[in-house]
Structures are given as C-alpha cells and as structure tokens.
C-alpha cells in the first residue's frame, strides 16, 4: 500500500484556524461581572439596568462550554446585518450620531464624524426629526438612509423640458402631467422610484404592487387599474401606443385572473371590477343602447378576432399567455374564468356591484359569437343570475344589465334564441313591461322582445303587441305638453316593436297605431326647428311603421314633401359637416378584444340622419316628387372624392340612407344622370350584410340609358352577370351582423375586377367568354374615367395603369388588344393627362413587384405586338426619367425592347420626348448601355432617347 502525500487545501486551513479560535475561546479566564460592563449598550430606558443585571447573572452561572454553544447557536440563527448592527452598538467609535437622556435642547443630536460632509448634509435635511429622536424609545442612533424617505424628494430634474416620458397615473386612473407646479410632496402621490419628483404611478409600478403579498397594495393597484381601463381610450392621442393595447400585450389579464383566485373579498371585488371594465365595452354599450330602435333596427354586433379564426388547431397548441394576447375571450375561458366566477357567486358573500361586473364579463364573452353565447346560456351561473333577476326581483341596474346580456345572447343565432325561449324568458320580462319601474330597463325588455320577432319567433305574443304599444304611445303622446326624452324613447321602442311585428308576421290589427302615428308626425313636423337625436329617431320610426304595409297615406306624404322642401337643404349641410361615413373614425382597440371604435357623433345633439331614412322609406312606398337641393349634390361629391373606410359599424346607417334615397328617386322617375351618380357612389360602399341592396344598385347602373350612351357597341349584360357572380346572394336571417360583414362587397378598384379575373384565370384568359367580358370591362373603365373621375381616383394612377395593362396579356395568344385598340388608346390619353401623378416607386396594391410585372409586359410586347404604337405607348410610360433607373436598365440589358418599340406623334404630343431625356442620365452603367445605340433603327424612339443622353455628356 502506498500513501499519497498532498498539501492541505485552502478550505482545510481555514477550518483548522476556526477550530483553533474556538479552542482559544474556551481557555479564556473565568468570566466576572466586570466582563460584561456596568450597563447595556443595546438596551435603554428605565428598565434597562435591571434587565442587564439579570442577563449578566445568568451568563456568569454558565460554564465556558455552555457559553460557547449558546453563542454559536445564537449567531447561526441571526441575520448577518443584525449581527453587524449589534457589533456597531458595542463599538464606541461608531460613525453614527447618538444621544443621551439629558433635558431636551437643540444641540443634543450631533455627528461624531464631522468630516463626512455628505452625511452632514443629509442630517441637516432631517433636522425636523430631532424632537422625535429625543422622545423616542431605542432611537439613540440616527440612520439617515432609513430616514431619508421623510425628507424632500430630489427635484434637480423637475424643470427639465421633456418631450417623451413615462406615463404616470393618479389614484383616479387619470393621466398626470410630467410635473405638478407649485405642489409639495404631500399634495400628490409620493413614491421612491427613479422619478421621485413626478407624481403618480407607472403601469409597471402598479403591476409591482399587484404582485406583492401586502393586501392593501394589491387592492390599491386593482382599483387604479380598474379606473385606468375605463379612461384608456381618452389618452390614445398623447401616448405612443394605445393604452389598452399596451395593457393587453403586457399580460395584465393574467395578473387580474390570479388576483381573482385570492381569498380576500376586497381583492376579489376589485379584481372583478377591473375585469368587468375590460370586458364591458362601456363606450360601445352607450352607443348601441342609443342606436337601438333607430329605423326600427335592433341589430347588435358580433366581435370577431380575425387572427384567431384562422386555425383552431394551432391556437390549441399556444400557451395561455400567447392565446390571451391573440384572443382574450378564448384565453380567458382556458383559465376557467367562468368556473371561478361561478364559485365566487355561490360560495362568497359579494355585493350587487360585483354581480354587475360578472354580468358585464359574461356579456363580453357572449359578444364573441354564437359558440360563446351558447356556452354562457348553458352555465349554472347564468341560470343563477336569471333567478336573482326575475325571481327575486333584484336591483333595476342588475336587471337592465342582465336583460342586455340576454339580448346579446339571443342576437347571436336562432339556436341561442330558442334556448332562451325554453327558459320562458318572455314570461319573465313581461313582469317589467307590465309594471315598469325604470325606463332603460323597460327599453331593453322591448328590444329583447323584438329580437325574437326578427327570427319570426314568439308569434304567440303577437296579440299582446298592439294593446301594449297603444298603451305606451297613448300615454306618452302628451299633446298638451312637451315630450320628454323618456317619452320619445318609449314611443320609438314601441313603434320599432310594431314595425318588426308587421314585417315578420303581417297579421295584426293596428289601425289605432296608424292614427296615433299620424298625430305624432303632424305635431313633430310642424316644428320650425330641426329635430334633435331622439326626435329624429321617433320621426324615422313613425315613417317606417307607415311604410311597413302597402297602404297609402296621402295626407302624410304631402306633409313629408312639404317638410323636405323646406328643410332638406339645411339637413344636407349637417350631413356634409357631420357625415358618419366621412367622420374621423378611430379604432385603437386591442386586436385580441376589438371594439366598435370611436366616431365623433353626439346622440344628444342634432342628428337628422334617422329621420331622413324613415322619410325615404315612406316616400318610396308613397311616391311624390320633391326637390333635391344643391346641398345634397355637394354632399354627394364630397363622398365620391373622399377616401372612405367603411368597415366600421356606424357607417351602415348613412349607407342605408343613400340606398333608400336611390330607391325613392328611381320610383318617382327622377332624372337618370342623378340616380346613376348615386348608384356608382354606392358601389364601393355597400357592406356585405346589405348584399341584396347591391343587386338593386347594379340593375340601376347597367340598365341606365346613361351608361348605354357610350360610343361602343355593348349592352353590358355580360359585365352585369360577372359582378352578380362576385356578390353573395344570400340574405342573413340573423338579428346580429358580423363585423366582418361590414367590409365592402366590392373593393375600391371594382371597375377593374373583370380584367384581373381574366388575367389570373387560364380558362377566361383564352376563351371567347373572357374576350367578351374584357371588351365590356374596358368600355366600362373608359366611361367611368371620362364621366366620373372622382370614383376612379380612389385607386392610385399606377394601380389603374397596371390593371388596364393586363389587357395586353389576355385573350387567345395575347392578341385581344388589337380588337380593343381604340378603347385602350382613349384610356391611355386619360392617364397621360395625369402623368404628373404617375408613381411606380411606391408599393402598388395588388402588384407584388412592379419590376417583375413590367418585365413580363415588355416580354409580351416583344412577342406579340408587331411594334404596335398603342401597346408601345403603354410600355414606354415607365421609362420616363422620373421613374426608377432599374426599369431602364431592364429594357436595355435583358430584353430586346429597344429594337422593336415605337410610338407615333400622337403619343409624343401627350408625353413629350424631353420627359425621357431630361435631366441628363448620370448612371454610368446605363450610359454604357446607351453606346450600343448605333445598332438600332433610327426611326425607333429608343434611338433618339439614347443619342440625346450621349450627346449631352
């Protein structure tokens, strides 16, 4: 056996040293009372001496080994910082100030280390603490770092001008300014973050509070976040990113959901309030409630998250956090939100305000679509709320919110509506209708009833409609007094219900209602002032009811025409200024939880739109001529020229007005040119849920003698059929309208759709049907470019050029352009007149790469054109000096275009040669290509362009 001799390790040496020290400790002389001093250096106060004596006596009675063991046990159980603190108390040379128990005076607090100027300045700032120090127990040391929070904040950056800074919010959830002038720390929120001179809390700081174990901090954070969510949309214009989007992307819902799992009722209540505010869409609710019943329409939106509708299998694989960021409703349901809400309601003592918040959360979930609405209505939680509201007759606020939730659910589909009818929901709401206590609740009940009528359900209640409506209308007419807002709202809702009954059932005796409606109209139309929103809504509903059946009301139609001739001009001025279609529409909602967006309208001010819709519906059934003021055409021209985004909820009302006025003018055989102008204005506005109305517009458009006046042999029947193929011919039976159905049926460039379809479809591209359709389409484009340039200009000139240029690559063997050369030439002249607006550098919608498109066009020219001058004129336009040099390099290096392309004097007069030669070319690579010019035929245009540049070098 061998031994391995190694040097002791550093760790072993240290351990041996510690053992030696402990051994030496055990060999100390015997301890006496003087070993511990006469007084304690830790304790102070009247009992300190007695306690010290007892401790010393106990220590003397212990052996050395017991003392050592006790010391080691004590040291191992104490925090290192505390040990250092006790040692500093023992040290007479400590660097902290101390005091004795002499009578108070101003000099008793002092610094031992006067050389440290920084510490002295800190203590001076704490001078107001001297009295507290002199009176306090165990305060013989001033620890300036711990007492620093009681002093003034550092204001060295307070007056610094800052353009971009972190947003801070007050306890009321409102955005605070960068600084608050002339305020002290006690006048606002005081914190110890990086910006101590600024008031309020950042989002991150609130999240930090929310993660604390200290309940008051969590409650504070939840309360502020709840209020902040309510105010979120108010600050979008001053923040670099919409606040609600930032909150959702930062994972706020996860923190709120965790708070909901707490056992503290206050934390749960505040978490419910925050989540309720997030799900409730209060701004949407206000607008939808006001617009319900307008034009006898009670449609509600379904909020779709487009990205979350793509691939459900992929969504199932995502993490909880990613799913919440993508789709809040699906993500929330994955966290068992409804089960937790159900547990809270059944097992915890929460108040009615929390029940309201829970109802708002369920409303947000149900608004997501049919699947989610059906999920809500089948839960025990919904059934429990139903029992509370209708059986125990809970508060009116909760009842109103719950009935709105029920209306949202019933609006999603017939299946949901039938499920509610199985629960005998109508029997329950009749309790409120027959014994009304609050108008908003009564209105929601009437709109819920109408929702079932829209599905042609609840027909057994039709006999109760007339008497009920008569009761409300008769009670509210108040011909001897001014009608209140409540009266107007009740009458509008009642007439909306009766209109629905007439449209969907038809068999109902309501002659008294007609009589009352005529009386109401006579009174309201006699006013010299334009109506406010509620009055406009009621007038529109009165006219809608009178037009529900094929009855003639000559006396009413006379008054309607008289009113229009007197006020229509002024009403159109209001439409011009406050157009819903041309409004400053903004939608900064988070993608995972969309809202209807913001539109600058006031439902309390003058809003004649709904009165106009009802008037046009009535005059369509009771045709009478009326004057169209010049203000209407001014308004229409503005519509034609505006770049309008119509994919929002509120645009639909103005579109409905334009559709109805178009029908009315057609019925009274108004001049064709004017009706045609309205029709083509509507072509790119009509949303998908109004698809059937587009058929009417197309019929008007293509059958118009004005269109047929084009000097080209065509009856447009093929083109009309093509557009009808593109439009879905199915009328929705839903009371709700999907937000995706608000997108226009036809795009802005609807004129060019047939050309693009032929170009992209091999069958059409080489068929006689495709060639016929192409001829029709080009004639249509020429007509619109000539007579309605405002509509065409909605599509950029470069995009229109590309779409028309596709013609040269269509037809059998790509030679169809020879048959339509005349039309193509006229269209080219239109585009050449706008040459200054031609821009191929910016992205072109529908063209992934203009370079590749142009290369294909040039190759096609070389193959089939036979140096056609019209084709050449189109190909030459992108070679102007103002366009990309890469296009010029392309035709000189890769394609034999210079040897074949040619145009005539007619085209050079429109786009002169100097557009191709000035300024002088500076690209050396291209100039080198120009040196090959002598190989070209001198009569071709490219020869003259190249020579001009080379001669000017």
Notes on the structure:
By secondary structure, this protein is an all-alpha fold. 57% of the residues lie in helices and 0% in strands. It has 48 helices and two strands. Strands 1-2 form a two-stranded parallel ribbon. The longest helix has 24 residues, at 554-577. It is flat, with a radius of gyration of 41 Å. The termini are far apart. The model is unreliable at 1-15, 21-29 and 93-119 (pLDDT under 50).
Major sheet details: 2 strands, parallel
Q: Estimate the helix proportion, in percent.
A: 55-70%
Oligomer: single chain
How are the strands of the biggest sheet laid out side by side? 1-2
Q: Structural class given helices, strands, pairing?
A: mainly alpha
Mean pLDDT: 81
Number of helices: 48
Unreliable spans are: 1-15, 21-29, 93-119
Distance between the first and last residues' Cα: 99 Å
Count of β-strands: 2
Shape: flat
Strand content: under 5%
Q: What is the gyration radius calculated from CA atoms?
A: 41 Å
Organism: Macrosiphum euphorbiae
Protein name: RNA polymerase II-associated protein 1
GO biological process, one term: transcription by RNA polymerase II
Keywords: Nucleus, Transcription
């Amino acid at each position: 056996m061998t031994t391995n001799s190694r040097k002791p390790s550093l760790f072993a040496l240290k351990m041996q040293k510690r053992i030696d020290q402990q051994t030496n400790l055990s060999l100390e002389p015997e301890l006496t009372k003087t070993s511990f001093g006469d007084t304690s250096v830790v304790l102070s106060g009247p009992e300190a001496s007695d306690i010290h004596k007892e401790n010393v006596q106990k220590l003397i009675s212990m052996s050395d080994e017991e003392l050592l063991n006790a010391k080691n046990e004590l040291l191992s159980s104490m925090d290192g910082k505390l040990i250092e603190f006790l040692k500093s108390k023992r040290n007479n040379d400590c660097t902290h100030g101390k005091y004795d128990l002499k009578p108070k005076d101003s000099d008793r607090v002092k610094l031992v280390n006067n050389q440290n100027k920084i510490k002295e300045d800190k203590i001076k700032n704490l001078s107001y603490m001297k009295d507290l120090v002199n009176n306090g127990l165990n305060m013989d040391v001033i620890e300036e770092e711990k007492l620093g929070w009681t002093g003034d904040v550092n204001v060295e950056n307070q007056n610094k001008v800052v353009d971009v800074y972190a947003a801070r919010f007050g306890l009321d959830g409102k955005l605070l300014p960068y600084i608050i002038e002339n305020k002290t720390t006690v006048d606002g929120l005081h914190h110890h973050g990086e910006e101590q001179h600024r008031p309020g809390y950042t989002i991150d700081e609130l999240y930090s509070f929310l993660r604390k174990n200290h309940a008051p901090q969590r409650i504070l954070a939840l309360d502020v976040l709840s209020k902040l969510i309510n105010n979120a949309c108010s600050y979008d214009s001053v923040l670099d990113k919409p606040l609600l989007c930032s909150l959702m992307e930062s994972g706020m819902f996860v923190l709120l959901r965790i708070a909901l799992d707490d056992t503290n009722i206050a934390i749960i209540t505040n978490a419910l309030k925050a989540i309720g505010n997030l799900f409730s869409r209060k701004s949407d609710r206000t607008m939808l409630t006001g617009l319900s019943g307008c034009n006898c329409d009670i449609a509600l939106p379904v909020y779709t998250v487009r990205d979350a509708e793509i691939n459900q299998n992929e969504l199932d694989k995502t993490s909880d956090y990613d799913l919440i960021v993508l789709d809040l409703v699906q993500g929330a349901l994955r966290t068992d939100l409804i089960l937790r809400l159900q547990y809270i309601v059944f097992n915890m003592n929460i108040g009615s305000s929390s029940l309201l918040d829970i109802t708002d959360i369920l409303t947000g979930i149900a608004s997501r679509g049919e699947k989610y609405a059906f999920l809500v209505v089948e839960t025990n939680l919904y059934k429990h709320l139903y029992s509370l509201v209708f059986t125990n007759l809970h508060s009116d606020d909760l009842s109103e919110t719950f009935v709105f939730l029920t209306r949202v659910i019933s609006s999603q589909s017939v299946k949901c509506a039938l499920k509610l009818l199985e629960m005998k929901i109508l029997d329950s709401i009749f309790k409120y209708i027959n014994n009304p206590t609050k108008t908003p609740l009564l209105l929601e009940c009437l709109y819920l009833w109408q929702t079932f009528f829209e599905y042609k359900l609840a027909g057994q209640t039709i006999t109760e409609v007339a008497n009920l409506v008569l009761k409300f209308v008769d009670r509210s007419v108040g011909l001897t007094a001014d009608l209140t807002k409540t009266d107007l709202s009740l009458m509008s809702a009642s007439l909306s219900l009766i209109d629905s009954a007439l449209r969907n059932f038809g068999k109902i005796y309501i002659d008294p209602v007609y009589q009352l409606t005529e009386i109401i109209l006579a009174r309201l139309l006699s006013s010299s002032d334009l109506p406010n929103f509620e009055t406009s809504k009621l007038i529109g509903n009165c006219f809608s009811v009178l037009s529900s059946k094929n009855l003639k009301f000559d006396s009413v139609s006379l008054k309607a025409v008289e009113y229009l001739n007197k006020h229509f001009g002024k009403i159109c001025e209001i439409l011009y200024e406050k157009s819903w279609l041309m409004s400053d529409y903004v939608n900064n909602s988070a993608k995972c939880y969309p809202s209807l967006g913001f539109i600058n309208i006031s439902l309390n001010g003058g809003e004649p739109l709904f009165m106009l819709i009802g008037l046009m519906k009535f005059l369509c059934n009771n045709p009478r001529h009326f004057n169209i003021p010049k203000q209407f055409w001014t308004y229409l021209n503005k519509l034609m020229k505006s770049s309008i985004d119509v994919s929002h909820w509120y645009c639909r009302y103005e579109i409905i007005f334009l559709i109805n006025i178009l029908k009315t003018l057609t019925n009274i055989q108004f001049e064709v040119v004017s009706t045609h102008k309205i029709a083509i204005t509507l072509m790119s506005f009509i949303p998908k849920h109004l698809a059937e109305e587009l058929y009417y517009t197309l019929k008007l458009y293509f059958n118009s003698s004005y269109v047929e006046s084009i000097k080209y042999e065509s009856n447009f029947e093929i083109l009309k059929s093509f557009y009808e193929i593109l439009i879905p011919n199915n009328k929705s039976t839903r009371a709700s309208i999907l937000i995706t159905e608000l997108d226009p049926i036809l795009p802005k460039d609807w004129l060019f759709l047939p050309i693009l379809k032929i170009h992209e479809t091999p069958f059409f591209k080489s068929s006689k049907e495709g060639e016929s359709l192409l001829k029709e389409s080009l004639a249509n484009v020429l007509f619109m470019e000539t007579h309605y340039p405002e509509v065409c200009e909605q599509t950029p000139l470069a995009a229109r050029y590309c779409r028309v240029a596709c013609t040269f690559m269509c037809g059998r063997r790509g030679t169809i352009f020879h048959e339509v050369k005349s039309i193509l030439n006229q269209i080219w002249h239109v585009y050449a007149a706008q040459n200054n607006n031609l821009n191929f550098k910016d992205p072109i919608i529908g063209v992934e790469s203009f370079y590749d498109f142009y290369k294909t066009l040039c190759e096609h020219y070389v193959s089939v054109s036979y140096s056609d001058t019209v084709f050449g004129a189109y190909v030459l336009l992108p070679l102007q000096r103002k366009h990309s040099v890469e296009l010029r390099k392309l035709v000189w290096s890769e394609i034999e275009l210079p040897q074949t392309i040619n145009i005539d004097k007619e085209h050079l007069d429109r786009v002169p040669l100097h557009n191709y030669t000035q300024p002088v070319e500076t690209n050396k690579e291209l100039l080198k290509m120009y040196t090959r010019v002598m190989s070209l035929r001198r009569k071709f245009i490219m020869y003259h362009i190249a020579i001009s540049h080379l001669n000017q070098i």
